[in-house]
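Hi team,

As requested, here is the filled-out complex form for the iron/sulfur cluster run. I kept the field names the same as last time so the parser does not choke. Let me know if anything looks off before we queue the next batch.

— J.
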Amino acid sequence: MLSPEEVRVAAKRKEKENLRFRTFLKNRVNPDDLDRKFHALHKELFADYDCCQCGNCCRAYSTILEHDEIKMIATHMNMSEESFADAYLTDCAEGLELKAPCAFLGDDGKCAIQECKPEECRGFPYTDRPDRWSSLYSILEFAEHCPVVYEMLERLKDIYRFRR
Ligand code: SF4
Ligand code: SF4
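And here is what came back:
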């Protein structure tokens, strides 16, 4: 597995190859079979990986919050929703999102609001969700930040005997 510091450069180097691999998956692979393989790799690779040594997703992406999440986190921090929003949130097309890099990522790599961590953060990189076949562009983009997703793509290339 690549280190969190190495993954961006490595993924950039593989950009063209990964786009070819996406086309290969789109044209040659059964979507249900692809989901089964993604889900198995997600389970295997995250079981052995401590995300606290990485945190790249918390630095790279803004997290959209539902209203009940804003309420819950503000309460957890003993803040009014308004002052919480002023301090930590920014407007986006879908509503309000945490600014990136996330202020709740600690130096130890832990999330300071673990008890009420937003759903979007819990689910990242979503490789155990259905219909990954329709989300391959996102997955290629995640591979620029997430060492586990990068590794998943490399393993899938071997599994499907993709010619690099
Ligand atoms: S809320 Fe926690 S898990 Fe979500 S981006 Fe911030 S530090 Fe990461
Ligand atoms: S989900 Fe991926 S990018 Fe996020 S902390 Fe874990 S390994 Fe890093």
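Two things worth flagging: The longest strand covers residues 89-92. The pocket of iron/sulfur cluster (ligand 2) is lined by residues 4, 49, 51, 54-57, 124-125, 145-148 (CB under 6 Å).

Thanks,
J.
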